[in-house]
């Protein structure tokens, strides 16, 4: 006997419910990624979507007028899937990072999990396009307002909005040199009688926000113990174009945001031959002062141009996964990015022993990866100390890296290797999306930055600043004198001079970054760093005056900066 029940009673016998159900799940997932709601919210959202579909009869025979048409919204929907993938994986989507990594190279990355996620997102996106096409072809009402939906999808996509904002700023704005006018050519005017050695430890994604014990417990406690012995800087914010590893290191070593070689650059999508060749960075200055410089990182130096940057800016040795793997006692003790942090710190100890054996000051810059998003890569020594890792909790990985860092410095100190060494500990950038993401974004976030060593006062300095200011601060902490306490776009946080963030605020600087062209050209099309003579210093410090503020830039009642 043929059933007289309506089609709704047999949801699995008609493709409309498969199509509508999948679209509902996609909508729920999108909202759970974009809004501060838990992932399982996608189920009630999908349920509400299906309830609305049943009430309005979407795709039902009464409204079916099948036409073989292609929806206008297919491409906008596909672009939304791209944005959702980036947002889900990184939390905050930075277009500058996307363009830079396309040029600098991503073949040697360690994000195997993100490749899997990309495949899943691609499959889900394709299925959603099939389901949406079926709905448009089947239900004439959807065809009537689908073009409006297309416009809304285009206007609301942050990826397209960012590109449009950049393009509009370039066309409309007649001043594309606001930041470049504030750039101070780094010049060492005075030098310490006995230059200290330098140890720079970049802690991957390990921001100072984790120091909030109410939200994150003791995850940051070992770094707090280290900070109690030196100068801790609170309030180091993140500007646009400084929020990924290479950008963070360039900001703190060159005093400039890493504006990619596009969008206006003729070689926008060709492989880079150099990284930031037009500015003088920490390595350029110290190599001319006689420092022997080494970079040490557990990941590949081919990824994102790290090798190009350090080799092009004064470093004698640049060691990454490829060079360090043969030195492992256990060649299988690797993660998808490269060396674990406990191994990296042990090799750093060996490198410092070798540097100490030769005359003259040395500098070692190292980059950990243990607290890398999304889950981290806690070392074997931490698992022996902290117990099993659940594979998700980023706070486990944060605590691991913090403890390994303190243990490493205490071992160096016990051997007298820090007696004449300045230590800088800093996060390379704020964390991307991790298991503690909802807690991290509850309030203002700031980067880790502390200095330890002989002559460094044990104090806490609270100032609104950015990672651009680490460059001159580090140089002055080493005993060098800078014109007006400035280098690049940064201002030493050891001096009373106001920095860019204090003068203009993060939002204004980010707005100016969308309009800036001259600084971008300086970074990528400027002259490569050249050896300095005494005449160069005179020209930079007095003969050629750097314009730092134009009358039209000065807010009412504000004195121009030094």
From TrEMBL:
It comes from the Bacteria. The chain crosses the membrane at residues 42-58, 79-103, 115-136, 148-164. Its main location: membrane. InterPro entries: Alkaline_phosphatase_core_sf, OpgB/LTA_synthase_biosynth, Sulfatase_N. It is found in: Cell membrane. PANTHER family: LIPOTEICHOIC ACID SYNTHASE, PHOSPHOGLYCEROL TRANSFERASE I. This is Sulfatase N-terminal domain-containing protein. It comes from Bisbaumannia pacifica.
């Amino acid at each position: 006997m043929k059933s007289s029940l309506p089609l709704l009673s047999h949801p699995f016998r008609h493709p409309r419910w498969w199509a509508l159900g999948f679209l509902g799940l996609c909508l729920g997932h999108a909202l759970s990624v974009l809004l501060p709601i838990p992932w399982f919210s996608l189920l009630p959202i999908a349920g509400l979507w299906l309830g609305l579909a049943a009430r309005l009869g979407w795709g039902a025979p009464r409204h079916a007028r099948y036409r073989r048409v292609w929806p206008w919204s297919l491409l906008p929907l596909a672009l939304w899937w791209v944005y959702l993938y980036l947002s889900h994986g990184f939390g905050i989507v930075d277009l500058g990072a996307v363009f830079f990594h396309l040029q600098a190279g991503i073949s040697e990355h360690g994000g195997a999990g993100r490749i899997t996620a990309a495949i899943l997102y691609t499959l889900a996106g394709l299925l959603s396009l099939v389901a949406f096409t079926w709905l448009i072809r089947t239900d004439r009402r959807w065809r009537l307002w689908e073009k409006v939906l297309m416009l809304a999808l285009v206007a609301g996509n942050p990826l397209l909005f960012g590109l449009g904002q950049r393009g509009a700023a370039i066309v409309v704005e007649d001043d594309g040199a606001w930041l470049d006018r504030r750039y101070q050519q780094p010049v060492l005017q005075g030098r310490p009688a006995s230059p200290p050695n330098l140890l720079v430890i970049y802690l991957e994604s390990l921001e100072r926000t984790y120091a909030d014990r109410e939200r994150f417990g003791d995850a940051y406690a070992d770094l707090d113990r280290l900070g109690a012995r030196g100068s801790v800087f609170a309030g180091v914010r993140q500007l646009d174009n400084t929020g990924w590893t290479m950008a963070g290191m360039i900001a703190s070593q060159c005093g400039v945001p890493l504006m990619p070689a596009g969008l206006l650059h003729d070689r926008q999508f060709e492989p880079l031959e150099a990284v930031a060749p037009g500015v003088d960075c920490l390595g350029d200055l110290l190599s001319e002062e006689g420092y022997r410089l080494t970079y040490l990182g557990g990941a590949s130096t081919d990824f994102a141009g790290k090798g190009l940057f350090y080799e092009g800016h004064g470093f004698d040795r640049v060691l990454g996964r490829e060079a360090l793997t043969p030195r492992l006692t256990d060649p299988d003790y690797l993660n998808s990015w490269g060396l674990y942090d406990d191994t990296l710190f042990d090799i750093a100890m060996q490198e410092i022993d070798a540097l100490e054996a030769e005359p003259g000051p040395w500098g070692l810059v190292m980059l950990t990866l243990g607290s890398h998003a999304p889950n981290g890569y806690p070392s074997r020594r931490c698992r022996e100390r902290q117990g099993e890792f659940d594979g998700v909790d980023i706070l486990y990985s944060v605590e691991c890296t913090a403890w390994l860092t303190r243990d490493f410095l205490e071992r160096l100190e016990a051997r007298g290797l820090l007696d004449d060494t300045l230590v800088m500990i800093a996060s390379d950038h704020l964390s991307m999306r991790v298991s503690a993401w909802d807690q991290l974004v509850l309030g203002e976030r700031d980067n880790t930055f502390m200095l330890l060593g002989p002559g460094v006062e044990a104090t806490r300095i609270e100032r609104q600043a950015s990672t651009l200011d680490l460059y001159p601060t580090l140089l002055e902490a080493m005993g060098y004198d800078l014109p007006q306490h400035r280098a690049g776009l940064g201002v030493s946080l050891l001096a009373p001079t106001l920095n860019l963030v204090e003068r203009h605020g993060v939002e204004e600087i980010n707005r100016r970054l969308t309009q800036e062209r001259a600084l971008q050209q300086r970074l990528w099309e400027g002259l490569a760093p050249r050896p300095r003579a005494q005449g160069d210093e005179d020209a930079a410090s007095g003969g050629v005056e750097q314009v730092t503020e134009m009358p039209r830039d000065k807010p009412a009642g504000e004195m121009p900066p030094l």
